Input
Amino acid sequence: MRILQLAPLWETVPPPAYGGTEAVVSLLTEELVRLGHDVTLAASGDSTTSARLLSVYGRSLRRAEDLVDRNPYDWTHIGAALAHAGEFDVVHNHAGELVMAMAALIQTPMLTTTHCMTTPDTGFIWARYRGHYNTISRWQQAHFAEVAPRAGARGYVYNAVDVDTFPFQPAKGDDLLFLSRLAPEKGPQYAIEVAKRTGRRLILAGKVDRYDRQFFEEVVKDLIDGDQIVFVGEADARRKRELYANARCLLMPITWREPFGLVMPEAMACGTPVVAFDRGSVPEVIVHGRTGFVVQDVDEMVDAVRAIDTIDPYACRDHVRQHFSPAIMAARYVHVYEQIVSGRRPATVARPLIRPALPARDGMPATVATSRSAS
Output
């Protein structure tokens, strides 16, 4: 099959540090090439891939701080990619709504993956989009069914991590880890509160976007003491693997409905359990009581940290290998591509890979069975 993977121009593929979407695009592209498909990746010129690389600009826009206005480069990137659409059986759009707005100008069918949620303004495009889309969690499906009534829903495909590139370490250190953007929706202030209440040191690793600078300065900065609460900045691929492997557990006190949350399977691939607030896809990714804990608030997160030694690191890594591997992700996307190209209607949604798990209300821990998909 001839496939165009259209990545955002804002990050390198794969990303050197932050960039969940680009990491997934890289894994999918490489696995599709390994399977023998004819794949072209539209991305920044500093990207690395075994597919053909289609690029109009030599570096990711995030690192092009000398540019006064980066949007024209993004527009040209998308225009150049879609100009080649006729050479492919399917265009897989990972670059969001601007690509979707142009979908009516090409004849090649388009699949859009919902790496982000909609906003009131981007909903304008989704309401008019007649292409195909897939969500990255089962939880997301209901949201997009409402905002994209004309589009072709193609189920959900979980993101993947390359387990073998993450070091497994069953003997854990004592530190808690928060690894994410330091943004209001990620809840770093709650991770700090948990650390102080449990008496453990917390490592904060992540970037501070210009949009989040005020939040960081007003809410987080004064809580960092360099002793119990340590901020190490944004972690690159090597550093984040070290942090995951050594951490007692990963804290994810999110305040928004996370579409997937790639840090969860990344941490678990290192044998590190995850404790996360019950928002969005969290109950689909964490098996409560087996690979971590799904909690409702800071009080329950504190209790979960105190019970974290009940989680088996081997079970964490095995869970990721069984449910979030690149091979599984690519196979599911190939199935979707084939449906789109042949014009078949979507099949009935298969049983979820993982049954949703809500925390037991009578304490920690609780166990939840898992299920493989029948498809």
Summary: The chain has 13 helices and 13 strands. The CA atoms of residues 38 and 214 lie 45 Å apart.
